[in-house]
Structure to design on (251 residues):
């Protein structure tokens, strides 16, 4: 499995190739993110890249304070992200592209010289830099898909989605806890990779619930872009329905 830093760089490159030659009409096409056009999505990615840079360099609180200056308290992470975008909406397309590109490069440079086991501050609490890189991969992949869908350019799945599925699997306890629910026991993912090879995440203890199907479908469900009923995923066990309802890759 590819490492998260390399995978993140590859995902950033994929999005950059889409954005580089985009015209004004393309930048302002609506996306499946309610109320956001392509420019808003890319602005959001640039803002969260800046948060990630702040996290990796010990400056998270200061960066977040700058990005939220003058804003009211947000009831949720999604509300806070929407308010941050609204606050800075209106910059030129070229300025947004330059901001996205520079923050993507800077975060990659920070990760290249970092100890990925180091614990840092992030939205939902402390995590390792390795997990932060994977989280940024997941968000960049999700929003690359949002941009591509808006432009009528579907993106084929790559091996990078295996890291995203692993993140979704590892954070199931958090997803259940955030929803006020409890897992009945360990969960296994027995998925199929984009090339047809097995992509499996198996707990140390015997699984009581198993989710099967294409890894890309699992990632789309975790991204809240489709429901499980729209995919080829299926589950067995007491938590199958709840896992496919609650699985996620973001705070």
């Amino acid at each position: 499995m590819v490492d998260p830093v390399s995978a993140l760089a590859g995902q950033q490159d994929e999005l950059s190739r889409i954005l580089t030659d985009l015209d004004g009409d393309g930048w302002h096409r609506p996306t499946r993110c309610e109320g956001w056009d392509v420019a808003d999505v890319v602005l959001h990615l640039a803002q969260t890249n800046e948060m990630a840079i702040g996290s990796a360099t010990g400056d998270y609180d200061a960066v977040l304070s700058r990005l939220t200056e003058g804003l009211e308290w947000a009831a949720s992470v999604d509300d806070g992200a929407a308010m941050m975008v609204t606050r800075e909406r209106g910059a030129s397309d070229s300025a947004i592209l330059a901001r996205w590109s520079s923050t993507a490069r800077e975060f990659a440079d920070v990760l290249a010289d970092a100890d990925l086991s180091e614990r840092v501050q992030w939205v939902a609490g402390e995590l390792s830099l390795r997990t932060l890189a994977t989280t940024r991969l997941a968000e960049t992949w999700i929003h690359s898909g949002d941009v591509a869908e808006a432009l009528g350019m579907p993106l084929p799945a790559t091996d990078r989605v295996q890291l995203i599925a692993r993140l979704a699997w590892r954070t199931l306890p958090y997803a259940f806890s955030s929803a006020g629910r409890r897992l009945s026991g360990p969960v296994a993912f027995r998925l199929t990779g984009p090339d047809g090879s097995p992509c499996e995440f198996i707990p140390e203890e015997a699984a009581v619930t198993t989710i099967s199907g294409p890894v890309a479908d699992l990632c789309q469900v975790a991204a809240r872009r489709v429901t499980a009923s729209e995919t080829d995923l299926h589950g067995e066990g007491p938590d199958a329905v709840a896992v496919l309802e609650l699985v996620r890759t973001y705070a």
Q: What stands out?
A: The chain has a mean pLDDT of 95. The chain has two domains: 4-155, 161-246.
